[in-house]
Every structure is written in C-alpha cells, then in structure tokens.
Amino acid sequence: MDKRDYYDILGLQRGVAEGEIKRAYRKLAVQFHPDKNPGDQTAEEKFKEATEAYEILKDPQKRAAYDQYGHAAFSQGGGGGGFGGFDISDALRAFMRDFGGGGGGFGDIFDEMLGGGGGGRSRRGGPRKGHDLRITLPLTIEDIAAGVSKKLKIQRLVRCERCDGSGAEPGYTPEKCPTCHGAGEVRRVSRSFFGQFVSVSACPTCNGDGQIVIHKCSECRGEGVVSGVTTISVKIPAGVSAGNYIPVSGAGHIGSHGGPAGDAIVMIEEKPHDIFTRQGDDLICEIPISFSQAALGDQIAVPTLNGDHQLKIPPGAQSGKVFRLKNKGIPHLRGLGKGDQLVRLVVWTPTKLSAEEKVLFKKLSTMSGTQPPKADKSFFDKLRETLGV
Ligand SMILES: [Zn+2]
Ligand SMILES: [Zn+2]
Question: If 0-12 CB within 10 Å is exposed, 13-18 middle and 19+ buried, where does residue 51 land?
C-alpha cells in the first residue's frame, strides 16, 4: 500500500505555516484518539497516520527533506534519519508530548503507556489523576447489621478558586518556560560511531509542565490547589467487616493540571460492642445467671440486635452451656440469610453473703445432690455433651 501524502493526511496545502500544521494535527488527533474510539482499528490507523505526518512536517529539517524527496526521504537507505516502526505507543507519546498539557484529559492513557516500562522518555506535566484518599470509618455492630448511609467530612486538596487552578495570580497567566520553550522536556544530542542519539528528559526549570508561574496566586502560592473540607455520603451494605472498603469515585484529591480527582477509599472498622463479639457473621454473648436459676431452670430475657429474646433455661443447666439463636446474627454480605447468635451461660458466684445466706449455703452444701461428680474423663465427656460444644 502506498503511503498517503503527509499534507493530504492533515488536509493542508504545501507551504502552510508551521502553526497551521499543529492546529490541523491537533484537530485530527483529538477526533481519532484511541481514548475516544475504543476498539476502533480505523480510528487508530488514522491517529497513527496523522501523528506520523505531524512528526515529519513540524520539524523544519524533516519537512524540507520530505518536500524535496517525498516519502523516499525517510525510507531505508534514503538518509535523513529513518522513521520506521512508528507504532501506536509512539503516536500517543508524541501527541501527549505536544498537547498533553492542555487539559485534553488523556493523562491516564499516557500514564499507562509509560507505566508499562515504556522507553527512556520522561513524561511531561500533562493532566494527572489526583491521589486517592483513605478514610477509616468505625461502625457499630448495629450499623453493620442494618446497613447504613453515612455522611463523612473529609479534608482533601481541591482546585484553588482564586486562580481556578492555574497557580497564577488573577490578571496574570502562567508563562511559557524559557528553558524548554513550553515543550516540558529538554533534548540532548550526542554523536557516536553509530550515529546521532537524542536523549530527552523532563525540563528542570518547569518540572515538565512547559510553563512557569511568575506571579503566584496569593491563596495557593502557585500550587493551584488548596486544602478544603467536603462532605461525602457513603452507603454501607449490611454485613461488611473490618478490612472491607468502599471506593467513592472522584472524592479524592484533585488531579494536577486539570486531571480528574482520585477516589476516596472508605475503610471499614468495627467498634467494640458492650455485649456482643463478632465471629464471622455470628454474634457471641455471655449471660450471667444465678446458682438457683441454673439449678431450677428459668426463663430469661437475652438481648439481641432486634430487642430481647426470651430464652428458656432448663433445670440443671451447666455454666458454659451455649444456646444457638438462629438468624439473630449479622446478615451475610454476599447471598441471603444471616448468622446466628450464640448465648453462653455463665453461672455467677456471689461474692458477698449475708449471715442468713451463709447459713443456707452451708445447709445446701451438706446435701449430696449439690455436690459435683468426680472430675474424671466420663465427667468431662458428659459435661461437653450438656454444654453442646
Ligand atoms: Zn490559587
Ligand atoms: Zn521548561
């Protein structure tokens, strides 16, 4: 397939001004950018083609060679420094290098391309997504069991309103960096036996931004961002546990150079409960009962998450016996149903006895029915059976 004429690709006449080339390319690149045309091969080809044309025509030397020899100027052996193997990542980098700072919103793609270990080029200061913000949210067991919506006040970096994020005092605009002339990067050319090498690194004056702020905004001191307090609402589903987190998209710190905000990551913590401890989706509680209740049996009110539950204690209940109250626990986060509540009886021993009580206990202690059996293996086997453990 014959290569199309570079001027035709950009829809330009020969001899146009340099600025026209940039303008025409930008329009096409934005139209066919892969970010806007996901999965569209034709658009990707057009994006690559336009970028290749731009890369040649924007460079006065290459443009002169092309004007004179056409594509032959860049084919193998044609001299002029080869331009083969132009792939989509080269095209994306070229576009971001020259247009990334204008709030084009393609910063994420650029990050991805470079994040994949891409080459020796350093990034310039295009739009960048802001940092995520971590917030811990302590919840009561009641909140966790019911699910809850919370409003959270968070402190985060927001765009400075005084300068609208530019960092420049109102009335002034950021100026083109004198070191890199707005390119955001500096090139060093070195010659060796194998030819000419160009190394590119971020401009040290502007840190790759391409522009510098001389008259700094008095509010943000040129940073373009200030600390602000925002209220966000988070919906927490029933059944979450400590360590679960809920991302709130776009509620993190604002990005630099018009980049999107990061996310707020709400980390769930569990507050200790006076009565219940959690084991998975089961709740465990201990209920003290008296000697007499244990011996004679009784009906007692056991607290649950939904009010009291009347529990029947059979006569002769041992301390440590566990009752399972079905579906009185925490709802399962995934799937239907709930955990159970486990109630463990603890026979409470009185610590202060009146004279009369002492007499009664002494009298009881002489009766054979009140004595525990010998503590041997069969005793513990039997005990375990009664406790239900
Ligand atoms: Zn400001
Ligand atoms: Zn610079």
Answer: buried
CA 55–ligand 2 middle distance (angstroms): 21
Q: Which domains does the chain have, with CATH numbers?
A: 6-115 (1.10.287.110), 128-168+221-271 (2.60.260.20), 175-212 (no CATH), 277-387 (2.60.260.20)
The ligand with the least distance to the CA atom of 183 is 2
Residues that place a CB less than 5 A from ion ligand 1 = 160, 162-163, 217, 219-220
Task: Quickly tell me which residue has 């009010």 as its tokens.
Answer: 307
Specify the pairing of strand 341-347 against strand 282-289: parallel
70-94: per-residue pLDDT in tens?
Answer: 887 776 543 333 344 567 777 887 8
Q: How many CA atoms lie within 13 A of 106 on its CB side?
A: 26
The ligand with the least distance to the CA atom of 159 is 1
The model's pTM: 0.56
For the chain, residues with pLDDT lower than 70 are 1, 75-86, 100-126, 192-195, 388-389
The number of angstroms, rounded, from the C-alpha of 53 to the middle of its chain's C-alpha atoms is: 39
> What are the DSSP calls for 152-196, one per residue?
EEEEEEEE-TTTTTS-BPTT---EE-TTTTTSSEEEEEEEETTEE
Strand duo 307-313 + 185-192: pairing: unpaired
Cβ neighbours of 63 (radius 10 Å): 18
Please name which of 61, 60, 67 lies closest in space to residue 6, comparing C-alpha atoms.
67
**CA–CA gap between residue 278 and residue 31 (Å, rounded):** 56
